[in-house]
Structure formats: C-alpha cells, structure tokens
Amino acid sequence: MERKYLDFEKPLEEIEKKISALEAGRKNGTSGNVEDIVLLKQQLTEKTKEIFSNLSDWQIVQLSRHPNRPHTLDYIENVFEDFIELHGDRCSADDTAIVAGIGKFRGIPVAIAGQQKGRDTKENLYRKFGMAHPPGYRKARRIMKIAETLHIPVITFIDTPGANPDIKAEEEGQALVIAENLMEMAMLKAPIVCVVIGEGGSGGALGIGVGDRVLMQEYSIYSVISPEGCASILWKNQSAVEEAAKALKLTARALLDLGVIDTIIPEPLGGAHRNWQKAFELTASAIDEKIRELKPIKEEKLVELRYQKYRKIGFWREGVNKNE
Fold first, then answer.
1. DSSP structure class, residue 81
2. If you classify domain 61-311 with CATH, what class do you get?
3. Which of 84, 110, 116, 244 is a Cys-bridge partner for 231, taking CB atoms 3.0 to 4.6 Å apart?
4. 84-132 pLDDT, tens digit each
5. Which residues contact 18 (CB under 8 A, 6 or more apart)?
6. Pairing of strands 108-115, 154-160
7. How far apart are CA 243 and CA 199, in angstroms?
C-alpha cells in the first residue's frame, strides 16, 4: 500500500524519502552510508515524537480518517482466528458496509461486527464508505443474538462517518433500526466489548456501540456529529472546523474524562497507520483484558451493570428557583 501523509506529517515524509534513497543506494552498491541511515532514523523518531506530542483535536480527527489506517477486516484477519463471515439480515438484503460473523479470539469463540471502509473509490462504493443501511444494522443484531444463544462475547469495531443518510435508508426506517439495536444491545445477555478504531460518527456508530466496555484507540474520535457538520450548523462556516472539533470533546482523552468510554488503547508512535502489527497487538491486549473482566459476571448481572453504566454518563446541575 502506498504510504500517504497528512499535511502535518510532511516533515516525516521528507526524512523517510532520504532514508529510502540511502537504503536503495546500499542495495545497489552505489551509495548509502550506514551511519547516515542510523542518524536519519533517529531524527525520524525524534520528529515523530515532537509532532505527536502536541496534536490538536482537528489533527486527531484527520488521523482517525487516515487513508492508511487499518480497518475492521484488517483487525479480523490479524487478531482473530477461524473467522466465518455471515451475510444478510434474514429480512431484506446484505449490507457490505458492515462485516459480521463468528470467529475465535485467542481460542475463545466470539461474535464480531464492524463497519468496513474502502481503500479506493471502487472499494468505497462497494462498502458505501462504511455507512450502513438498515440491513447492515439488522445483520449486526442477528450476529449478536446468535452470540446470546451460544453464550459467547460480542466484539464490535466502530469506524463510520455515520449511518447512511440517503433516501433509501430513510425509506427503510434507518432511525428505527438503530433505535432497535440500542434496545437489543442494552438487554443482550452476552458480554459486549466495543472498540472505536477510527471514526465514531453519530447514530451510525451507536448502532453497534452499546457495550459493557467501550474502548477507543488513541487517535480515534467519537462524536454526535462531524466537526464539518457542527461548523456548518453552529458557525455557518466550514473554516470553523478546528474550533468545532475542540468544542465537541470527541477525542479519546476527553471522552475518558467524561466517562463516555472506559479505556484508551495506545497507538504505535506516529499512529496505527504507521505500524499495523503493533496496533493489532495493542488492540488485542486491550480486548483480552476486558473479556477477562466480564467473563466471571453472570448474564443477568451483566445487563444490570450495563444499564447502570449508561445511567451514570453525563453531568447535570440543578437550577435555583429565584422566586423561592
């Protein structure tokens, strides 16, 4: 896969090009000093640390959408074993924006569902840019009910700009289907671990996002609306996206502080897109930890604790009646 760079990553691109040129020269026996390569690699590490130590919320939004970032199928292929994809919602159709099926996680049978984006225009059109229609959410729910029957954990991967907003989705009852998923997941008698691996956008994310443990990768986002949408509505100006991103509190750190998520999964230096294998390892370790936490809890108690978890989210302040 061709490595792509965001604007603030451009300094890293320059250094990596120099390293590649020197390494190619060494292979050809024409040029390339080992010491120069070592120094450049040290420089690359230092520059990466410098850039990523002071990211703005908008830059984190850009990282969550990075074209080289691993997607749901990449995690399924590298973190799970014996995955069998199941198609269709047993009602109307199969939605390719959501991948779902049964597999094994470190020897334990699990149910898996997640949004899947594409890598190029053709694949994005096939995957609907990771924006599911009602059949996709029904398919995910079907897999979850199978997990309940088999008494196995559910793991969801969230990576979508939002549910598909086209006319067909509305005609098929998009809002109702998502609401039904929220209700079913809230009452599901099986452990649920939700992992935000990129964009967690609006109701599209919530449709597979109700869980006993909600995890977010370090440079992922989770929000009721995109910064672009927020800027358009509140500021009436797309140039306000950076301000909107900050106001939305959509980063993993902000959401952990607010109690919306339970755990931040650290990413490799420079982000998951720069070291897939390390990202897989860190994510697998976090999932393993949560499954071990949930395993001893009885199903009925699990549902009650899930209910209480969501009841506690949010802050409020009682007003004072000035007439009293």
1. E
2. alpha beta
3. 244
4. 999 999 999 999 999 999 999 999 999 999 999 999 999 999 999 999 9
5. 40
6. parallel
7. 18
**219 touches 194 (CB < 8 A):** no
Q: What's the longest Cα–Cα distance across the chain? A: 88
d(CA 282, CA 288): 10
For residues 219 and 255, the answer to whether their CB atoms sit within 8 Å is no
Cβ–Cβ under 8 Å, residues 190 and 210? no
Question: H helices of the chain, where?
Answer: 10-28, 34-52, 57-64, 72-79, 121-127, 134-150, 167-171, 174-187, 202-206, 227-230, 241-248, 252-258, 276-294, 299-311
Given the structure tokens 């691109």, which residue do they identify? 13
What 3-state class would DSSP assign to 32? coil
Would you list the domain boundaries of the chain?
9-54, 61-311
Closest CA to 66 of 279, 282, 281: 279
**Per-residue three-class SS string for 229-243:** HHHHHHHCCHHHHHH
Query: Is residue 192 within 8 Å of 206, Cβ to Cβ?
Result: no
User: How crowded is residue 73: how many other Cβ atoms within 10 Å of its Cβ?
Assistant: 16
Residue 318 is classified by DSSP as -
This prediction's pTM: 0.92
The first and second tokens of residue 184, run together, are: 């079913």
CA gap 208, 202 in Å, rounded: 11
pLDDT tens profile 150-200: 999 999 999 999 999 999 999 999 999 999 999 999 999 999 999 999 999
Q: What's the pLDDT at 23?
A: 84
| Both tokens assigned to 248 | 């939305």
Collapsing DSSP to helix, strand or coil, 316 comes out as coil
> Taking 70 as the threshold, does the pLDDT of residue 28 lie above it?
no
Place of tokens 């196995």: 152
User: How many whole angstroms separate alpha carbon 188 and alpha carbon 20?
Assistant: 51
